[in-house]
Design a protein that fits this description.
117 residues, alpha+beta, six-stranded antiparallel sheet, 6 strands, 33% helix, 28% strand, YjbR/MT2646/Rv2570-like, MmcQ/YjbR family DNA-binding protein, DNA binding, DNA-binding
Length: 117
């Protein structure tokens, strides 16, 4: 499966997740309102990636330890969002966990709790 299709499947499997274009790219929302993943097809750089909110401290740690896979994205990086490259060798189980963590950052507690079941 292409990276976009794989990412789409991960995002849409989450409770009340929806997809629509935002800034010209596929973007996933919780209940159609809060963004939890933004696809970035060479959006202002040469990377195929996605951007997502990360738990406190995660962005800094991953960018520092694995800069070939993770980066601080423009516009939202200063708020702790993480850039995840999709044009490198991927561990889709790790990507799935990052997506779930991003969802937990913005989802209402009642929806986030559904991930624990």
């Amino acid at each position: 499966m292409a990276p976009l299709e794989e990412l789409r499947a991960l995002c849409l499997a989450l409770p009340e997740a929806t997809e629509r274009l935002s800034h010209g790219e596929p973007t996933w929302f919780v209940r159609g309102r809060k963004t939890f993943v933004m696809f970035a097809d060479h959006h202002h750089d040469d990377r195929l990636a996605f951007w997502c909110p990360a738990p406190p401290g995660v962005q800094e740690e991953l960018v520092r330890t694995e800069p070939d896979r993770f980066f601080r994205p423009p516009y939202v990086g200063h708020r702790g969002w993480l850039g995840v490259r999709l044009d490198v060798d991927l561990d889709w189980a790790e990507v799935a966990q990052i997506v779930r963590d991003a969802y937990r950052q913005v989802a209402p507690k009642s929806l986030a709790a559904l991930l624990e079941r």
